[in-house]
Design a protein that fits this description.
With 194 residues, this protein is α+β, with helices and mostly antiparallel strands. The protein has three helices and ten strands; from the N terminus they run H-E-H-E-E-E-E-E-E-H-E-E-E.
Length: 194
């Protein structure tokens, strides 16, 4: 009897690990710069309207992506990196939310977070344009965002599609209304580390 109880308890404890596997994922994220409004609400009626070049190189950005999945929680960090002779910048999107992996076929996720640049110029580091000593203020002034994701697990990799929706303002402004027209899209390829 005790063995059965122990076995049932072990299965109950291990089940979430199998359901929400792929704890740490690392990969590449390709962002698309044209907004929802530019893609789906063209302004062809206006005389000065010029149709965008949908496949121009400047519409795409490449960034590493780190994702942690712990039970039903998901932390996702995407720092779009840019370099110069005397500067470095990581325009970082960080979101925390929930995720559900359904029968190893699809992973659905949704979360909220911030978009904030972390930079270094001439040896001076800054976050959100502020010195690191004012990091709390910078985080409060960072633009909020919402993120919805759809992932397709394929053995050791996962293909993801993301919809990033900025909010109307920052935490300090208290404007949490999503701005659908300014939303953008990205795709990613993530390697399951463990």
């Amino acid at each position: 009897m005790k063995k059965k109880v122990i076995l049932v308890l072990m299965l109950a404890l291990l089940a979430p690990a199998f359901i929400f596997a792929d704890i740490m994922q690392l990969g590449v994220n390709v962002g698309y710069g044209l907004t929802y409004d530019q893609l789906f609400n063209p302004e062809g009626e206006e005389p000065d309207y010029e149709e965008p070049d949908y496949f121009a190189a400047e519409n795409f950005s490449f960034a590493p992506e780190l994702r942690l999945n712990v039970l039903f929680l998901q932390l996702d960090v995407v720092p779009a990196l840019s370099f110069g002779e005397d500067y470095f910048m990581a325009d970082t999107q960080a979101t925390l939310g929930i995720q559900f992996k359904i029968l190893d076929v699809v992973r659905l996720g949704a979360g909220a977070g911030i978009s904030i640049p972390i930079s270094q110029k001439d040896g001076v580091w800054a976050i959100g344009g502020e010195p690191f000593s004012k990091a709390v203020d910078a985080l409060g002034n960072a633009r909020m965002l919402y993120k919805a994701s759809l992932g397709i697990p394929l053995s050791i990799v996962e293909l993801t599609a993301n919809w990033i929706i900025p909010a109307g303002g920052s935490f300090n402004e208290g404007n949490f209304v999503p701005d659908i027209e300014a939303s953008t899209f990205s795709v990613g390829v993530l390697l399951n580390l463990f």
